User: What shape does this take?
Amino acid sequence: MARYLTLQRGGFCFRGRKGHIIKILAHDDHGFCLFTKRLTNGCFAWPSTKIR
Assistant: This one.
Protein backbone atom coordinates (compact mmCIF):
# COMPACT_ATOMS: atom_id res chain seq x y z
CA MET A 1 0.00 0.00 0.00
CA ALA A 2 1.30 3.45 -0.89
CA ARG A 3 2.27 5.77 1.92
CA TYR A 4 0.99 9.32 1.63
CA LEU A 5 0.83 12.67 3.42
CA THR A 6 -2.05 15.12 3.12
CA LEU A 7 -1.12 18.68 2.23
CA GLN A 8 -3.16 21.78 2.92
CA ARG A 9 -5.23 23.07 -0.01
CA GLY A 10 -6.04 19.67 -1.53
CA GLY A 11 -2.75 17.89 -2.15
CA PHE A 12 -1.24 14.47 -1.45
CA CYS A 13 2.34 13.19 -1.34
CA PHE A 14 3.01 9.56 -2.23
CA ARG A 15 6.31 7.78 -1.62
CA GLY A 16 7.43 4.55 -3.26
CA ARG A 17 8.10 1.48 -1.16
CA LYS A 18 11.89 1.83 -1.50
CA GLY A 19 11.75 5.55 -0.76
CA HIS A 20 13.56 6.85 -3.84
CA ILE A 21 10.45 8.10 -5.70
CA ILE A 22 8.00 10.73 -4.51
CA LYS A 23 4.85 11.89 -6.30
CA ILE A 24 2.86 14.98 -5.37
CA LEU A 25 -0.75 15.31 -6.50
CA ALA A 26 -1.95 18.90 -6.14
CA HIS A 27 -5.31 20.52 -6.86
CA ASP A 28 -6.12 24.14 -7.52
CA ASP A 29 -8.92 26.08 -9.23
CA HIS A 30 -7.81 24.84 -12.68
CA GLY A 31 -7.51 21.10 -11.97
CA PHE A 32 -4.89 18.56 -10.86
CA CYS A 33 -1.11 18.53 -11.30
CA LEU A 34 1.15 15.52 -10.77
CA PHE A 35 4.80 16.14 -9.89
CA THR A 36 7.33 13.28 -9.74
CA LYS A 37 10.89 13.23 -8.40
CA ARG A 38 13.26 10.24 -8.43
CA LEU A 39 16.52 10.12 -6.46
CA THR A 40 19.47 8.17 -7.86
CA ASN A 41 21.23 8.07 -4.48
CA GLY A 42 19.59 7.94 -1.07
CA CYS A 43 15.91 8.14 -0.22
CA PHE A 44 13.31 10.68 0.86
CA ALA A 45 12.87 11.11 4.62
CA TRP A 46 9.36 10.14 5.70
CA PRO A 47 7.67 10.33 9.10
CA SER A 48 7.15 6.94 10.71
CA THR A 49 3.84 5.75 12.06
CA LYS A 50 3.31 3.32 14.88
CA ILE A 51 0.39 0.93 14.40
CA ARG A 52 -0.73 -0.69 17.64
